[in-house]
Amino acid sequence: MMKIPFIKYSKLWFSISILTVVLSVWAIATFGIKLGIDFTGGSMVELSFSKNRPETEQVQHTLESEGLKQYIVQKAGDNKYLIRTSFLSEDQHQSLVKKMQSTFGKDGSVVHEESFETIGSAVSEQLRQRAISSIIWVNVAIILYVAYAFRGVSRPVASWKYGLLAIVALIHDILLVMGAFAVMGHYFGVEVETDFILALLTVLGFSVTDTIVVYDRIRENIVHHSAANFPEIVNVALNETLMRSLNTTLTVLLPLFALYFLGGESIRNFSLALLIGMASGAYSSIFIASPLLVYVEKWQRRKTA
Amino acid sequence: MVVVPGYANQGLKWVNKKANLGVPLLPQKGFNLGLDLQGGAHLIYQTKTEQVPAGDVASAVEGVRDVIERRVRGGLGVSEPLVQTTRVGNDYRILVELPGVTDVNQAIKMIGETPILEFKEENKSPERDLTAAEKKAMDLYNAAQQKKASDVLRSILNGTSFETALNQFSEASSSTAQKSGAMGFISRDAYPEIYDWAKTAAVGSVSRTAIKSADGYSIVKKLAEQNGPKRVGAQHILICYKGAESCDTAITYTKEQAKARIEELKKEVTAKNFTDYAKRFSTEPAAATTGGDLGTFTSGQMVKSFEDAIFNVPVGSIVGPVETEFGYHLIYKKSEDAPKEYSVSRIYFGLKQKSDIVPPAESWKFSGLSGKQLKRAEVTQDTQTGQVQVNLQFNDEGTKLFGEITGRNIGKQVAIFLDGEPISIPRVNEAITGGSAVISGSFTILDAKLLAQRLNSGALPVPVELLSQQKVDATLGADSLQKSFKAGIAGLIAVMIFMVAYYRLPGLLSVFSLLLYAVLNLAIFKLMGVTLTLSGIAGFILSIGMAVDANVLVFERLKEELKLGKPLRSAMEESFIRAWPSIRDGHVTTLIGAFVLAWFGGTGFVRGFAIVLGTGVIMSLFTAVTITRTIMRFVLGRFTTGTRLFFLGGKPVSKL
To answer: How far is B143 from chain A (nearest CA, A)?
Structure first.
């Protein structure tokens, strides 16, 4: 079977990755990620209009007449509006819905409140903190586990370095997803809610799984062969696991595509985050994590020599 | 059978019928669907525990939880509400989940309207004095204001026009129009200093000093003068009767008796002895000190019948008896005049007073007795008056407290507050140690019943505030459920097609394990009562893809082993063993993520996702390794050489 020289073109892969990561970081830094009400506090009303969906300006006008200053009005589906506002008390909420119904519930058109969500600042603060600490803890736990799983392998690269490199690949994936959402937030007003953190954490697990499979094969090949030609061992391992990597990624992406296209509005962003993260996870374990391992080994040799 | 009990039961029924067996039917329990799939409401309340001593907070919050649960079960008829307490830092929160409830507004009202019952006693502690620092700051401010006033005055005396200075320097006050500084026509009562100046000043003139009045310094300009309305000074004697407005409860006169009494007094009273009589006989509580003096008043300030009787009679006459809602009056007209009024405008510099800094003392203070110590409330009727009242029975702690409160307030009033409003302020005649109290406001029987019912279902020991709410309409939930179900099926089929197309026979075998995986997983969700939310279903769909990961690893290994020329059976066994470390490590990292997620979520949908993902990962280890291997061992025994088409392509399988 044909062997693909992955390691030989490491510099190309790194350049691509560095470019995408730099772009992502730039997007995150300039646009920022649009946080949804889960993290900022506020209210979100979803209204459906059975017949005549009014124009955005009309809805905005009604909001103004209710004394609301900060709001975002978005069309959703064929007959719905999503309205995000600052925190509404229950009285304000009821008054708003009544106003919408009296203003647009004419000519047989029924205005119905599909869903309502309001998050106080105390709750959003708590969610924000938990999101950050959970991401940190997942990373710590994964480094520890990978270091433990590879504890037998200390030649030519120490086991904890495997863990560290797996995390480098993982950070690459996370940055890519975040960058994509920063861009989408800027251009399409996509906001990020708690389920985005779910997606990120799932991507974390998956990305590492992928990397580990390749590393596992490297580990196995080191035991069987001598560690003399490390780059070659890594390249062989990559080729041996390539079909597995592609196929696994495909079997995960297939249901995600189904979810993205068929799962409905409310789950679309969630599945998109997973799609980007999973694809990037597969890419990074082949094109980043393994070539990096070779570089670390080379660098070590140069130091000892 | 657990997943679709309906069909399974039909089968069992059939068996039972045919074979006459008594196989028990399966319970038809549904999946535990999250709010986003079945509709409903999720509310988070903050408990306000500031007033509760630190040691009692946890139990008070538990109390709130219990009360809310009773309320939503009884009042709203929600059969499976989820009411939980959580602690975030020092905040205690209550999570209320109301599956299937569509009228969230009513639910919120039900929970929020739960009455807060408090017993309060008169607050005798005086207002606090100013602290030294506050006093110093106040004096400094006032001195600065005085200086400012005299500076502006000097500049006016030096030629600046009054209006210019007014525009530039005057502060706003409640009695002064901001722009013009006009105060309108003032009376001597409100601004004696300014009034007295205006009395002698010419129209159009400006005061040559900054006049100090109660509220600050004013540089005043007189605009106009006019004769004021007629003003009458009077004194009165009141005889009230039981049932008349504001009549002291100690008075036992009937209306007729009061009338007779006032006629009696009328015969004796003169201008000379009026004050003395008022002090001795008037039922007005303050009369003993004031002698019934009402000061002066203009038209419209008194009750109509009272005013009509006194306003147009000569000074010195005694009129009456006059009937008002307060009882019967004898009135002595002391004076009549029509003082001048002056319209002025002023440049105002306000002074700060103690009352601007220290808040006024509350007239009631909390006694420690609240709805928390209530055992039972019931509607009763006063045996004498027939008045509807609510009888409160305290528990042991409440009985003791109530005894102490009534004991130290004999002769004083105790107020019963409901939701911050006094509903009854009875006077305590003696210490009550029996542990029961009566609320006798002006209830209708319906009000009283409602109050008793609300008190019984529990008064909140501490107030709560709605922090956040989530509400999903049932149709939207059903729509989401249907869509995600469709997506799940589509995803499953896509994965199956791929596996069969790429791995042929082993792929087909893995499809069986995959189906088994899906069914077993759903059964676990049901049996463990895992709450399935939209993201949980997404997690499940995702885990379908991950479940075949182990199979992919094994099959790729199998291909390699076969390429090395190993016989089919040993190649298969070898591939399972060789692939195991990778499978294990991969699954563990995903499990780590699931565990952290479960912790991150605390409750609700994040945890649902984590549990679904976690069980999925563990389950797939079982199905993809154990089940697939068993099936493959069974099937491979039937194949001989040369059947490579059914396997994985590549070299023909040479030996078995």
So the answer is: 43
